[in-house]
Structures are given as C-alpha cells and as structure tokens.
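Researcher: Please translate sequence to structure tokens.
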Amino acid sequence: RFRQRAKEQTSKPPPLQEKPAPHPSRLPPPRPVSPGILTVDVYGPTHTSVTSAKKEINDLVDKRHCKRQIDEFSRLSEADLARLSEFAQRRGILFEVKVCAAQSSELIELVGDTKSVSEVYIEINNAIQAAIVAVYHRRIAETVQFVRVSHLGEELYDIKTNAELEEAHTANQNEKVIKRNGRQFVVSMKDRLNMRELEVGQASGGVQVLRRDLQSVLPQLWEPMPEKKKFDLFPVAPTSPEYQDVLKLFNKSCSRSVSQIERVQNPTLYRQYHSHKMALDCDPSLKNGANELKLFHGSNEDSIQKICNENFDRSLAGKHAARFGKGTYFAVTARYSTDYSPPSNGKCYMFLAYVLAGDYVVGNSTWSVPSYRSDNSNVRYNSTVDSESKPSMYVTYRDAQAYPAYLITFT
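Model: Translation complete:
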C-alpha cells in the first residue's frame, strides 16, 4: 500500500533548493500494519514522479514475487502439512490451506518471492509423490511377499524392495539389483522356480528367494494353466453368466450372430495390467482413478495370436485411422468395431478388452502421447477420446493400459 505525499502545482514551480531533512517529529506517524505486510510511503516532488516510482516498485514486486496453488494434497498427513508449512516459513513464504468454494475442496496457496515459492512447490509435490508411492508399496505388500531363505531362516524384504522385486517379476526381467544395508545384491529371476539372491560380483551360491501370493490377482473364473504356457484360450460355456454378460454387451449395439466366446488367459499380461490399475487408483490427481472400462477392438484372424501373446500393438496406429492420436483404439460399441473385423473363412473376430481410461482429453492426429493436463503442466492425460462429453472411442498409449479379456467369434 502506498501513500502519495505530493501536490501537483498548476503554475511553474520555483527552482528546487537543497533543504535539510525534516525533523523526525514532522514526519507522519507510522501506521499499524498486519504481520507479513510491508507498507511503503513514496515521497516525491510531483505526482508524476511518485506514480513512476510506484510503477517501478510494483513491476519489481511482480517480477520477483508470485502465487501458486496446489489443489490435490489429500494423501498428505497432518505431520506432512506441519513440516511443509515450517519449510515454507523458513523461506519467508506465506503457506495457507484454503477452501475452494467452486470445487468444494481445499487447496494450498503459496505467496512469496518466485525462487522460494518454486522451492516450496517442488518440496510439496515431492511429498505428494512420496505419499502416493508409499500407498502403492503397501498395496503390493498386501498381495505379494518376497522372502529370502538362509540358514538363519526366512526374512521378509522391506516394503520398498518388495515392490521393486514384484515390478521386475511382472515385467519378466531376468534379474533385479537391490540395496540392503549399504550393499548391492542381485536377485536372479531367470528361473522363476529357483530365484536366488547373490551379492554383486558373487558367481554362485547365495540364498533362495521365494515369491508368495498372499491374494492372487488373477480372476477367480480362470482355469488352471501349465506353468510354462504363456497364454491360452478357453471357450466359455454359452449357459454361463460369464458368457451372457459378454454377449449382452455385444448385442447392445450389434445384431450379428455370435458363434463362440473365448476367455483369454495370459497371467503375465494380466499382472502388468493389474499393477498399472493399482498405480492409477493410488493417484489422487485422477478424478475417477483408473476408470476401468469394457471396450471393443476389431481384429483380423492373423493378429489374434499376437494380441493374446503380446497385447495390443500400438505400432499399428494409423493403419486404419489415427484421427485422435497414434495409439491403440477401442470402441464403446461392438457395432463400430465390426468395421475393423474383416471376415476370414466366413468368420469375424473382435476382442472385448478391459481398458484403463483414467483422465482423458479430445485427441489430435499428430499426438504420440496425450497432452499435458491444463491444471498441472507436469502430468499428461492417460488417454484421448473423440468427445469429452460422450466418448464413443478411447485411445491408449501404454501397453499395460489394456487387457484382451475375451475373443468373440461372429458371422
């Protein structure tokens, strides 16, 4: 806040002369101000000079100060907020938790010099990400436990290492380097039935590593499979509720005759899909979490085995159409997908897929990945669509975003 102390002169002012500084008793008394507010009084010979000085000060303040808001911090605990508030105060930043009436939610507002606000903003986002990762690690630990077995008995890996080992296991890696007690070890996963942990540089020996499913992520309807078989197709009984559910979705938009529905069982692909679903569900910035949908994908006969074995191929984007992005396309209706199901010996094929749409935006034919979200320039959307209000198709850009659940044969 500024106070002008200059009077404009309508006539030509007399030449300025050096004058002694006024006695302190003649200066205006200091005004009471609120904590954190700096009051500046600007004095000058003319109104124009005072206005110019005010503008320079305001420009300097605008250049060196800023305000930033963080609207999603629900994962942070009270202790986290207290630590971050203290972190901000030490840097002279105003840290406030405010209620956003428009969204009926709370937000953190930071006000201060630009450099310090950026430091605090990064610290808060790091804390949010750490909280998300911690939740993800806990969920992994609820379903899977890796155990090292030595002459001293069994020992559980810590929650972070446990998650790292499960990610490597799901991704079919042959080995994973881990740290324990300041030393590096290699967990060999080439032989899933005989995994071992060796210290880096150790050629043989080591200790046995076990992986225990505490809660199998594979669907209960799945049938047993040979250990070394990567995938299999199991015909679904037409009288079963499982068959009727898939048929109902197909018939909702398509009158073609269905001759067979097969369940696609690929444990590796499903675990990758489930792991990605857990990660999205743990992300508080997503409005609808993973947003799992059941969508259709037309296929020719030659691509069936490849899709069942390796998942949908994003490299084929643009072969038929890529109007909304260079990814894998899925349709809300079976009728639309029939256009991409060419007949072979009188039969046509289509997949019913589980798709993790997450947050989406209308796509563009030039995009190889979705655009950044408008409210957070560091995070991209998860998928693209043809219409934000009522999508009829979705485009995904990550392999683990979809799983080919059922193969539908029709005529």
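Researcher: Any highlights?
Model: Confidence is low (pLDDT under 50) at residues 1-14.
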